[in-house]
Amino acid sequence: MIKNPFTKKNSSYSDDVISILRLIRSENIGIRTFYNVLKYYGSAQIALENIPHFMARIGKIKYQIFSLSEAEKEIELMEKDGAKFLTFNNVSYSKLLNQIEDVPPIISYKGDIKLLNTTCIAMVGARNCSISGKDITAKIAKNLTTAGVTIVSGLARGIDATAHEFSIPNTIAVIAGGIDHIYPPENHKLYKKIIDTGLLIAELPIGSVPLARHFPQRNRIISGLSVATIIVEAGLNSGSLITAKFALEQNREIFVIPGFPLDPRYKGSNKLIKDGANLLESADDVIEFLNKESFNIIKEDKNLSSSTLPIYKKVDYELLTDKNRKIVKTNLSAHPVNIEEIAIHSDLPMQIVLTILLELELEGMITYHPGNKVTLKF
After folding, report:
1. Can you point out the beta strands (E) in the chain?
2. Is there a contact between 138 and 165 (Cβ–Cβ < 8 Å)?
3. Strand 228-231 and strand 253-256: pairing?
């Protein structure tokens, strides 16, 4: 009997989890591409079996699939570190996070996973914060925790660390590197405390060192887990404003603690209030909001239903020619174009357009944008 090279050997994880891990770690597979591939093939395992042949059709013979041995090595490192994987289609995955556009397909975690589906409020602010900023953060975090709220933050120094410290055990720390990377190092004790009593999660592979570009990625998860985000101290160039931006895009509420107009640490905060954010004076403002709102969160199924044929089974491969590939590519530019418009102007069936776009996507030649739009990379 031939062993299936696309599934596990010996592991505590299912074939589906390992296939999801391998797919998201493969060449040119970002989050949007992951879900496009999943929609195209119907499952991660079928995608892994077909992508090498798919890419060979356009002459790319050496497309890099994340191998089973690489996946097993990552799982082994996770187990040694005491961490676990959780995929987007697991019942324990955050139902609220699963509503955002770029849901992490797989996260690693340590601690109490049940906190993911409690009522979460994010608290973020300046690393170089004031004493009064720390004091009000501590008070609000403590009062919200007493009211049954889980506080989410980024384990950074300053406001983040204070928010975690005063919301234990109901706290979730989202880190920018791998699950094993403690940053900043001075939060080592807090990191250990959160693992013992709260929840620590990461999107990047174990061993990843946090780089500047990873922090905005981390911030979208902080706001995505939360029904609302509290901004304590934020300058005009603060990373907290990025978190606020994500919260708005995710249709979440923003609360801001106002500050002295001449203090640069509050310039961004005060601007948010001018732009319509809720002014926050005490935890009661958030509790009142939570009591008024009804959060009907339904987990979105990002896989195809069993009654729907995957796209690859509906493709007329006689139309998948170099001539039609050129037609589709000609209709792309640096300006975002809706996929339906591409199909209309190409005069090709949608399945063929989607197949050609997926080829370009796996080659790293196009970028997807909100509104089902795409641009060509130059």
Report:
1. 84-87, 106-111, 120-124, 150-153, 171-175, 199-202, 228-231, 253-256, 278-279, 337-338, 366-369, 373-376
2. yes
3. parallel
Give the whole-angstrom CA distance, residue 285 versus residue 61: 59
What residue type is 134 in one-letter code? K
CA 258 to chain centre: 29
Do 351 and 217 fall into the same domain?
Answer: no
Whether 357 and 214 map to the same domain: the answer is: no
Q: Assess whether 32 and 137 both reside in one domain.
A: no
Q: Are residues 213 and 259 in the same domain?
A: yes
Distance, in Å, from the CA atom of 104 to the CA atom of 220, rounded to the nearest integer, reads: 10
Rounded Cα–Cα distance for residues 170 and 194 (Å)? 9
Fill in the DSSP letter of residue 8: -
Domain extent at residue 27: 15-81
Helix (H, G, I), strand (E, B) or coil at 303: coil
DSSP category for residue 114: G
* Residue 106: strand, helix, or coil: strand
131 and 197 share one domain:
yes
* pLDDT tens column, 52-105: 888 888 787 678 899 999 999 999 999 999 999 999 999 999 999 999 989 999
148: left (phi over 0), alpha (psi -120 to 50) or beta: left
Q: Is 275 in the same domain as 369?
A: no
Q: Is 233 helix (H, G, I), strand (E, B) or coil?
A: coil
- Contact in structure between 148 and 119 (CB atoms under 8 Å): yes
Mean pLDDT, residues 43-60? 89
Is-contact 157 263, C-beta < 8 A?
no
DSSP code of residue 164? H
What is the chain's length?
A: 378
Residue 60 lies in a domain: yes
* Rounded Cα–Cα distance for residues 131 and 154 (Å): 19
The 10s digit of each residue's pLDDT in 201-230 is 999 999 999 998 999 999 999 999 999 999
Q: How many domains does the chain have?
A: 3
What predicted TM-score, i.e. pTM, was given to this entire model?
0.91
1, part of any domain? no
List 108's β-bridge partners, or say none: 85, 202
Residue 152, beta-bridge partner list = 122, 172
Residue 368 makes CB contacts below 8 A (sequence gap 6+) with: 32, 33, 36, 361, 374
